[in-house]
Amino acid sequence: MFEKRLLEAAQKAIRELYSQDFDLSKLTIERTKKEIEGDYTIVIFPLLKISRKSPEQTAKELGEVLLKELPVLCGFNVIKGFLNLILSDEYWLSFLAGNYQRQEYGISQVMREEKVVLEYSSPNTNKPLHLGHIRNNLLGYSLANILSANGYPVVKVNLVNDRGIHICKSMLAYMKWGGDETPKSSGLKGDKLIGKYYVLFETHYKNEIRDLMDKGLTEDEAGQQAPLIMEAREILRKWEAHDHETIYLWKQMNGWAYQGFNETYKTLGVDFDRIYYESETYLLGKELVLEGLEKGVLNSREDGSVWIDLSAEGLDEKLLQRSDGTSVYMTQDLGTAQLRYDDYHPSQMIYVVGNEQNYHFDVLKRVLLKLGKPYAPRIFHLSYGMVELPEGKMKSREGKVVDADDLMEEMFSTAGEMTMELGKVSEFPGKEARKLFETIGLGALKYFILKVDPKKNMLFDPKESIDFNGNTGPFIQYTYARINSLVSKAIAQQLMPHQDVLPAGSRLMLQEKEIIKLLMAYPQITKQAADELNPAVVANYVYDLAKSYNHFYQEIPVLKEENADLRQLRLMLSVFTASVIGKSLKLLGIDSPERM
């Protein structure tokens, strides 16, 4: 990279000018601001102690030496304490010619040893996936792509929450009011049928709580003593005791949920390398709890429940096993962490989970540290913000959620309406048009969610996400399709470049140079996104690239350019831009339509 060459040349120049070595970590080199002429800027102020001259004079002296040292520089200017260096057009053109057809550009060719286990999705088998799950899945899948592009071996895992009191609530409601209803007889997807009974349980449960409160109980007392919740606890006890009838119903209902989840995952375009089930990890978690008791790290109370006291660390006491011997979320997460370590020995275990679980993962890591587990420091909770709607927060227990399937179908429909209004599908047959609407709708949904920093809460507006002119997925997809159309016409007219060398003396316009600069930044962008675990870095980059290309396309002729050398340059630029847009969208899990 040029930055490395520039640092080496700067060190040599400083030694020549001031007869002193300088700590290069104190020297700041950054991209020159758009409004100032130049490509790279060196901040001069740290040098003043050894130059003993004004910022302007120091910058001028350094610029003159660098101009001699680096032939790729063609000039510089000084603004106060900032030295702005200008690279020659030959430098940028050489980069363009050498990389515009490189399929591996921006993708690491060196496989790292640090394996990463990345968990995302983590559905509960008592309800269908909703908008919150969509953000989770899109973040996890995109991060897996980004880490893989940086050479990390990634194992994409899904932990299915298939056991526990919440699952028993749906089972109890089905036992009481389900009869012989099945997904086939009801016409509902399996996960939606189960979710129907979860909501039904909560409705009757709330009524029981109100009745008990009318009899003088507090809300907490009523919540604990309501007949429905006591029956649900009994089902959980039967399940952990492997009661035959309970296990049979549990397997049947979970099977319905899995079929529904798989349909949603397929439509959303996400997948997994390994699926873990809490029903298979909770026993290992209970073994770790027993190990903690034996080591004196955990303590057992008179009622038999097991706790860990973290008050000395600024937290509180945390329940790890109930008095009746049944496990809690923390128990099974302990077991899952151990099992993943045994399976893969990863350098890092990343959990993509909402920020409402910050405390949970803080405790999980601390418990494993106290148990002396070597993988405890490798746990990282990628905490993301909640997705809200214009009308407020979602509530699963009341059935007030944005169902993932319904949302995607709405996106497809809206994409179709807007595309037809713009007259972009007149030549598309029915099936191809439907496929295009799905590609645009999913692109809009994924980009709108991924362009927001994961740590931030976000407001999702479906209508705002589908716009062919704003900071949206369809705008970027349309730019890709536009370039693809341009290249197809160039091929048909036999205008495509036949060699990767641009004629000597070629010159760049500002719009062309801006695009090449953005293209050069792509490998660093993918690295930054991996280092920060933040797909928004890629999303906002590819929007800037698409926007810059559109300005260029509208202002500068390509196929109509009569000068063959300029036409070749602009076609190479177009091919390179389409390639990087396509790669960027792929990192985000977004398809790039060949035409729109």
Keywords:
globular, alpha/beta, Rossmann fold, 3 domains, four-stranded antiparallel β-sheet, Isoleucyl-tRNA Synthetase, Domain 1, 21 helices, 14 strands, 596 residues
Helix coverage percent: 55-70%
Please compute the radius of gyration using only Cα atoms. Answer: 30 Å
CATH architecture of the largest domain: 3-Layer(aba) Sandwich
- Low-confidence spans: 393-399
CATH class of the largest domain: Alpha Beta
Q: What would your notes on this structure say?
A:
Helix content is 56%, strand content 11%. By secondary structure, it is α/β, with parallel strands linked by helices. It has three domains: 2-87, Gyrase A, domain 2 (2-Layer Sandwich), CATH 3.30.1360; 120-273 and 333-398, HUPs (Rossmann fold, 3-Layer(aba) Sandwich), CATH 3.40.50; 410-587, Isoleucyl-tRNA Synthetase, Domain 1. The strands form four sheets. The protein has a five-stranded parallel β-sheet with strand order 7-6-5-11-12, with helices on both faces. Helix 18 (473-492) packs across helix 20 (536-555).
